[in-house]
Amino acid sequence: MNRFLPKLTGALLLSCALLAGAQDKAGKKLFCWNENGRKVCGDALPASAVDSAREELSGSSGLRIGEVGRALNDEERRAHETEQKRLKAEADAAEAARRRDAALAESYGSEEELRRAYRIRYDLIDESIKSSRLALDNLHQSLRRMLEQAGERELSGKPVAKPMADNIRQQRDSYLELQEAYAHQQREREAIDQQLQEAVARYREMKAPKTDAAPAGTNAPTRG
């Protein structure tokens, strides 16, 4: 019996070695990548292929188990970062809109309350527009009188005094600045029109049952 022990021991050692080899092979990966236009595979990546796109294969079955894209260059990385920022900005805007709509539905008990809040804004901007229009008319009349006086002096052969010329220039600059402010106020009122329409549409959507039909159009207050 003793003479069979060495053979048995050797067989067991061989089996263990084969099993360990099979397990080691099963745990390994094979990598395949393109190098100079041809496909190269190996069980280790050379330094030249670390940034290359590659497939990962099972060491035991040879089946594809994964994939790694190539490393991005500086320009592609910047483009990727820009795209990620854009997507985040869109997600943030969508979340802000969701919170805004929720606050809109909670802040006003009825559509009339919502419209009443906007009427306050309309009253304020309309009063500003009215004041700017009146100031523009007054400045225009004053500037016209000064220009007429300067023209009369020139026609009579008299020079336009420097204080008068400076005053005309200052009045003209003030008139142009006020014109721009007046135009800005008009654009602001148009923006409030748009905001009211959007707010009413969102309010109706938040309050209405999901099966309701689309809301009808909204009307903004008209200027007096």
Observed structural traits:
signal; 67% helix; 224 residues; 3 domains; single chain; alpha+beta
Could you describe the 3D structure shown?
- The chain has helices at 4-27, 74-107, 111-155, 162-207; strands at 29-35, 38-42, 54-58, 64-68.
- It is α+β, with helices and mostly antiparallel strands.
- The chain has three domains: 35-71, no CATH class; 73-107; 111-207.
- The protein has a four-stranded antiparallel β-sheet.
- Helix 2 (74-107) crosses helix 4 (162-207).
- The radius of gyration is 40 Å and the shape is elongated.
Anisotropy-based shape: elongated
Radius of gyration: 40 Å
Report strand order across the widest sheet: 2-1-3-4
Residues in helices, as a percent range: 55-70%
H and E string:
HEEEEHHH
Q: How many structurally independent domains?
A: 3
- From the N-terminal CA to the C-terminal CA, the straight-line distance is 119 Å
Q: Low-confidence parts, pLDDT < 50 over ≥5 residues?
A: none
The average pLDDT is 79
Largest sheet: 4 strands, antiparallel
Strand % is 5-15%
Q: What is the total tally of β strands?
A: 4
- Helix/sheet category: alpha+beta
Count of helices?
Answer: 4
Concise structural overview:
The chain has 224 residues and is of the alpha+beta class.
